[in-house]
Every structure is written in C-alpha cells, then in structure tokens.
Design goal:
Distance between the termini: 51 Å
Strand content: 5-15%
Largest sheet: 4 strands, parallel
Length: 133
C-alpha cells in the first residue's frame, strides 16, 4: 500500500504552475475565473519558496487584474519588455483576450496563455438566438 511513497499528489493547475516556475516565469497577471484561479493561487504558494535570490529578494511579480483584458494587456507589456510572462483564464476569458493575443502574435511578443477548460456548456449571449442543429 506504499505505492505512492515519495511522490507528490497534485492537480493539473498546480502542476502547470510548477511547470511555469521551473520554466522561468517572471510575471503573471490574472483575473479570477473558475477553474483557472487555482493556477495563479498555486503560483502565489510556490513562487515565494522557489524564486528568491540568496539575499531573499523575490524575482517575480503576480498581479490580479481588474478584468481579463487588463490581465493579458499586462502580460503582453511584460513580455514586450523582456520578461517571461503569462496569464491564465478559461473559455469566456479567452474570448475577451483575443485582441491582445492578436497584438502579441503580430508583434511576435513571447507570452504564455493558460486556457483552463471548463466542463459543460458556456452561457449563451441573451441577444443571440440559439441555433438548432
């Protein structure tokens, strides 16, 4: 019954956060949205332990933005200035981020966007009639 002895149990968002940390992330801007919020929360747990100078100075920034558009805008700006930048969101948030994602693509700005998928349908906009297939 000791088959997992010495191993760490983790969920996907925590594993993604640890991967980003070991990949060298320096900046993350995010806006709370289910189920992506725990990715940024895991960064807030592990970055203080894993990303400090020998003198104890932090070598990263994690900012909670006022909305999804601001979150990707901050990440694009950080990437443009040379930082290893990322943001995280889910389906509706990624829809709001498309303009800044297009800017980053066209300007060749390095950026990581974690799109944490939800299970189930996305709410339909009330002024658009549903399609019958």
């Amino acid at each position: 019954m000791d088959g997992t002895s010495g191993f760490i149990m983790s969920d996907g968002n925590t594993a993604a956060a640890l991967g980003a940390i070991y990949g060298g992330v320096q900046f993350e801007a995010w806006y709370p949205i289910t189920p992506a919020s725990s990715l940024a929360e895991a960064l807030n747990v592990y970055l203080p332990q894993l990303r400090k100078t020998p003198e104890g100075k932090q070598t990263y920034a994690v900012l909670q933005a006022e909305d999804e558009i601001a979150a990707i805008g901050m990440a694009v700006g950080a990437g443009w200035s040379g930082l290893r930048a990322m943001t995280s969101t889910s389906g509706p948030g990624i829809s709001l981020m498309t303009e800044f994602a297009g800017l980053a693509y066209q300007a060749e700005i390095p950026l990581v966007v974690w799109d944490v998928q939800r299970i189930g349908p996305v709410p339909v906009c009330p002024h658009v009639p549903p399609r019958v297939i």
